[in-house]
Specification:
Elements: E1 2-6, H1 16-20, E2 26-29, H2 42-54, E3 58-63, H3 69-73, H4 79-94, E4 99-103, E5 114-118, E6 124-128, H5 130-140, H6 152-164, H7 167-178, H8 190-198, H9 205-226, E7 229-233, H10 251-260, E8 266-271, H11 272-276, H12 283-290, E9 294-299, E10 301-304, E11 310-313, H13 322-332, E12 337-340, H14 349-352, H15 360-387
Parallel strand pairs: 1-2, 1-12, 2-3, 3-4, 4-7, 7-8, 8-9, 9-12
Antiparallel strand pairs: 5-6, 6-11, 10-11
Helix pairs in contact: 4-9, 5-6, 12-13, 13-15
């Protein structure tokens, strides 16, 4: 497995020389400054890759080459958007960047209600509080049908939170929910979010799957020709929110996607945090099943609550058996880039003002822990091989 680190380029408060001290050898990044749907120019890609190489790294994964909302909605004549996506892939391949992570989540990417939830021994983590999300949907967005999406306990807490919340509390909640948009630096206000959601009125899971299948049919053949590996990121959280269907949340969803266009170029970003937030997912079993089509891995842990809430645990803690997941990927004997996904804000992390979920010290701790597990599993495998 290839140790890598997500870097936000000119928007990142963490520099490439600092990343070099983590021991990672690969960089995961994107041209976040380019609006969705536009072509990534080859010259711009080349300049970013040269900067990364000059710092002693390789650009191992694009995260992300985003998909325009019109493609997700199946809205009108999409030929120009598909052509632009294929041209961006061609420009990346021409500059030696051949693994592309993307997602098919409507409107929002990862969604959290708290960006600095306290951790028991100090520091903070990202948290999804079901009651706060219910309060946001029911009382701030006015989506009455959201009541069916939450437990009675979460709904009761949501009503209490709404009654007690100040204008500042509500603004903080909106900011937290909007913070999972890595490339779209224009965040929605309530009116803007309502308008974005209206574009998906009447679009159910089957329709979204059909639109996704069309995207795959349009771009996977080009990816095959270019030697590119596409890898979809799972939904985060892996459940419907805001009345929007989610279609990359469990093993059944992943099987559908991989079979929709059955090609090695059509693969998976195996995110243990996203998939781990679904209580029905058996991550070690899924890692064994999908290792052959996994082109990239996000490794982090979660701790779940019965009401649908969850928070990001330390990388080797929480509900996911990370050692078993890593053993499955190592057994596949593939050079899969991975990165320590998210991390607790520890020590002086909070003072840096990094992107939410992407601190320096917290991710460095996660990378060191994952590196140790991988080294230990490798030692055991060699010892077993010697005894055989």
């Amino acid at each position: 497995m290839i140790e890598s680190w997500r870097w936000y380029g000119p928007f990142d408060k963490i520099t490439l020389p600092e990343i070099a001290q983590t021991g990672a050898t690969g960089i995961v990044t994107a041209l976040h400054e380019i609006p969705y749907g536009e072509v990534w120019p080859r010259a711009t890609i080349a300049a970013r890759h040269a900067e990364i190489r000059a710092a002693g790294f390789d650009w191992v994964v694009v995260e992300s080459l985003p998909i325009h909302e019109r493609i997700k909605r199946g809205d009108g004549d999409l030929s120009a958007l598909f052509a632009n996506y294929r041209q961006s892939m061609a420009n990346l391949a021409a500059e030696g960047v051949t693994t592309i992570c993307y997602n098919f989540m409507p409107v929002l990417d990862w969604t959290r209600t708290d960006l600095a939830a306290p951790v028991a021994r100090g520091g903070s983590c990202l948290r999804f509080e079901a009651s706060k999300m219910a309060a946001f949907e029911l009382y701030m967005l006015g989506r009455a049908e959201a009541e069916a999406d939450y437990t009675p306990e979460a709904l009761q807490k949501a009503a209490i939170w709404h009654q007690q919340a100040s204008a500042s509390d509500k603004a903080t909640l909106l900011h937290s929910i909007m913070s999972g948009l890595p490339g779209a630096y224009d965040r929605y206000d309530i009116a803007g979010l309502k308008a974005a959601l209206q574009g998906y009125d009447g679009l159910d899971q089957d329709a979204l799957r059909a639109n996704y299948t069309r995207f795959l049919q349009e771009v996977v053949p080009a990816a095959e020709d270019l030697g590119i590996k596409l890898c979809v990121h799972p939904d985060d959280p892996p459940r419907d929110i805001l009345g929007l269907p989610r279609i990359v949340s469990d093993a059944e969803d992943i099987r559908f996607i991989l079979n929709a266009v059955d090609s090695p170029a059509n693969g998976l970003t195996f995110c243990t945090g996203s998939l781990g937030a679904n209580p029905a997912n058996d991550l070690p079993a899924m890692a064994r099943e999908f290792a052959g089509r996994t082109h990239f891995a996000h490794l982090r842990n979660v701790r779940k609550d019965p009401d649908g809430s969850f928070e990001e645990a330390a990388h080797l803690e929480g509900d996911t058996d990370m050692v078993a997941v890593l053993a499955a990927f190592l057994a596949a004997d593939r050079a899969i880039p991975y990165r320590p996904d998210h991390g607790h804000e520890l020590l002086d992390d909070a003072a840096r003002g990094t992107h939410p979920g992407y601190p320096l010290v917290g991710r460095l701790r996660g990378l060191a822990e994952l590196r140790g597990v991988i080294a230990g599993l490798g030692h055991l495998a060699r010892a077993e091989s010697g005894r055989a």
